[in-house]
Amino acid sequence: MRIWSIHPKYLDSKGLVALWREALLAKNVLECKTIGYVNHPQLDRFKNSQNPLDAINQYLSNVYDEAVVRQFKFDSTKFRKPNLSLLLEVSEGQIIFEFKHLLFKLKSREINLYEKIEETKTIMPHPMFKIVKGEIENWERIK
């Protein structure tokens, strides 16, 4: 499971669709509708928020917004847009790690996008995250 902390605009089509599916799976986990992935470390930041369901719904809402920009047909009934905007923290080290991880994937499957974003100096986070100083998050699985 990869629930990106970087802005979904950096993802290729395959990556955006995969993110949508995995975030929906995360929502099902947080709603106790599945027995799989319940202890997945990437869910910790949502579980540790004041309202985990509002947090994952906002995350999905922002992914949906990117899909609309790209004219994808994602189903808006799969999430509930929260009334208030939540802002969760993510470390600078995590953002850099994820961006490098994405570049590695794009180099082999979407070279044009890779070349377009590889020199990015300021990496934007997913809209619900605020970047703070720090290393890679402790929930990240590094291979």
Short description:
This protein has 143 residues and is mostly helical.
C-alpha termini separation: 14 Å
The class by helix and strand makeup works out as mainly alpha
The sequence of SSEs as H and E is HHHEHHE
Mind describing the biggest β-sheet?
A: 2 strands, parallel
Question: Approximately how much helix is present in the residues?
Answer: 40-55%
Radius of gyration: 15 Å
Our count of helices gives 5
Total domains, how many?
1
Mean of pLDDT: 94
Output the strand order for the largest sheet.
Answer: 1-2
Low-confidence runs (pLDDT<50, min 5 residues)? none
Based on DSSP secondary structure assignment, what is the total number of beta strands? 2
β-sheet strand percentage: 5-15%
Shape: globular
Structure write-up:
The protein has 143 residues and is mostly helical. It has one domain. It has five helices and two strands, in the order αααβααβ. The chain has helices at residues 13-30, 44-47, 52-69, 92-109, 111-117; strands at 88-91, 129-132. Strands 1-2 form a two-stranded parallel ribbon. The mean pLDDT is 94.
Helix and strand arrangement:
Layout: H1 13-30, H2 44-47, H3 52-69, E1 88-91, H4 92-109, H5 111-117, E2 129-132
Parallel strand pairs: 1-2
Helix pairs in contact: 1-3, 4-5
Task: Considering the chains and any ligands shown, give keywords for the structure.
143 residues, 45% helix, 2 strands, globular, two-stranded parallel sheet, mainly alpha
